[in-house]
What we know:
It is found in: Nucleus, Nucleolus. It is built from 27 helices and five strands. It has helices at 30-36, 40-44, 58-69, 75-84, 100-110, 119-129, 131-134, 140-160, 167-196, 201-205, 209-219, 230-237, 240-251, 260-294, 296-302, 304-314, 317-322, 325-329, 334-337, 346-358, 382-386, 392-412, 419-437, 444-493, 497-504, 514-521, 532-562, and strands spanning 2-9, 13-19, 47-54, 92-96, 113-115.
Amino acid sequence: MVLLHVVFEHAAGYALFAVKEVEEIGMLLPQVVEASVLNVGKFSSVVNLSAFFPFKSAQTALENINAISEGVLHADLKLFLETNLPIGGKKKALLGVSDAKLGAALQEDLDLSIQTGGVVAEIIRGIRLHFHSLVKGLTAQAASKAQLGLGHSYSRAKVKFNVNRADNMIIQSIALLDQLDKDINTFSMRVREWYGYHFPELIKIVSDNSTYCKLAKLIGNRKELSEESLEALEEITMDSAKAQAILDASRSSMGMDISPIDLINIESFSNRVVSLSNYRQELQEYLRSKMGQVAPNLAALIGDVVGARLISHAGSLTNLAKYPASTVQILGAEKALFRYWGSPSLLGVRMAAVMAGQGWIGSGALKTRGNTPKYGLIFHSTFIGRAAAKNKGRISRYLANKCTIASRIDCFSEVPTSVFGDKLRGQVEERLSFYETGDAPRKNLDVMKEAVAEATEVAAEIKRKLVKKEKKKLKRAKKLKALAEAEGGEVEVEQPNGDSEAQENGVTPKKKKKKQLAEEDVTTNGVEATPAKKKKRKIDSVEAEPEVKEVEVEVEKKKKKKD
């Protein structure tokens, strides 16, 4: 006989429920269980709490929930099941689990029969609804607080977990850069079409979109263009011949006349397009700096933009580092691979990459009888464009291999340096020259030994600078703290009469600087002033004298009474 148990993961702890034995087989059908879920009485007749393992602390609960979310069997859950689940005996134990990944881990480690769908899903739904009623001593309010606290901790840990050194900023930047390229191109075409009614000859003279918008803003009405504007035209076009051609074309233009209000709108729109172009340049500089911080080797090897696109397409730098070279090679060419298979998966990409490497017919070419693509996003690299047609596939495979090495170094190195990226780029250059001239490239072992030696020196230098910087910060902080304490003590002791008058008038006196206090302590009319500390002691003694006298008077009075 098979006895079904269901494990339930709650914020308060692990719970193991036993489904009660029934004679009728229909009682275990999902439809029957679904009908009894909403009623606590009926549902308690179906399941019974077998064991409960509460979490000792919030940190333990967070560790367990992180393991469950990743499909990993935690030591607490393993011990709990080994202790309370009847594995041996005549009755075979069947364990119901909500997560299929966790079920696979349990089946592998504990050698259990696992069930995830069917009646188990309905039973877990009922347990989730009536959990506080099924576990003695647990109230609905306490269960809700535990869930809320664990939810906040889990979300906070996920947000803080950032091994990739803010590669999400790179993903957003490259996405915005691509969007800006599309928008600027669309808006520039609109300016060309709009201003072309008035000055159609300018379109043939100036091909660059940003320059055209700047000229449209500068020229305005072509009839007002004169020799005085020639210098301004040269500044924008950076070409005196082109500036003169614009001036000549404006005098014999076939364009229509345009009203001032239309010109104002065209100039305003041109100004917006120019500002977008300027912002795009700033964004590209920002992307270059971020790539230098997050993935310097990948940027040095394949370029900032292509490297950022690879990271964005993979989802993160860690995901890119986990991919094999065959996947990186065709990353971005999923449409060609899966034209007839729908949405691609990582396994499918890897299978197709292996098929492409072995010369088989690709999955997307099942009907077209074509080969799989040789490259994806790395096609935008300069190396593939420089290679001959027959060597493009070979150099793309070699470049993907080097990109994988660079991404793994960037992801898992403590101190980011571009030494390995420069060396890998040199290797790709040597391989290109080998394909063209036949000169044998250097061995990978020799190049990597040089790179490791240089990277060690660079990393040591960076660490030394960081330590020096930290020491300077600490020294500066100590000096400021000591200065603040010294100024505070001296100001409390020495308060001129003017300060008291200022306080009475509602004005707060300002603290004196250390130099001013030192100057006041210097001799006045040849007589040395008393140091601040000595003054404080004298003041204290002066203030203490009346109290001592009062005590002496009281002692004398007591003596007289005794006498």
